[in-house]
Amino acid sequence: MIYKLLFDADSEENRINKGTRTIFIDHTNTRDIEYPGIKKEFFDTIIFSENIIKDWPNVNLYYDSKVSDKEIDYLYNVISWPIIHERVKTVFELKNIEGQALPQQNFLSNYNTKISRSLSIYPE
Question: What is the pTM for the complete model shown?
């Protein structure tokens, strides 16, 4: 069985119209990452390939807390990675939905206050 994560743009537009924006990851270091078999500046495409990532490099994702600090289950981001909250990953595991996930680490950073959070990333 194949599962596809979709970002609910209509719900996000409704939140914006109501003044309740959510975190948007607007900057990353993925263009700077050098990884075997991946051309420099293209690491952000690796999760959409069949490559199994054995040794994750330091991936940094940044957002602006002046825009929003509100987390949701599926974070919208500039590189279109399917980034889910830990609680979604837990549901996936309970339902035996498998996928490759970036190991838990603090990689989501607020570039205004230097707060870091842990998230999970699953490929499509």
Answer: 0.70
pLDDT in tens, 29-48: 999 999 888 889 999 888 77
Residues 16, 109: Cα–Cα separation, whole Å: 22
Q: Tell me the C-alpha to C-alpha distance, in Å, between residue 51 and each of 5, 79, 86.
A: 19, 17, 23
- Choose among 71, 76, 82: nearest CA to 116: 71
For residues 58 and 50, give the distance between their C-alpha atoms in angstroms, rounded to a whole number.
20
Chain length of the chain: 124
For 18-34, b/e burial (b = at least 16 CB within 10 A) is: eeeebbebeebebeebe
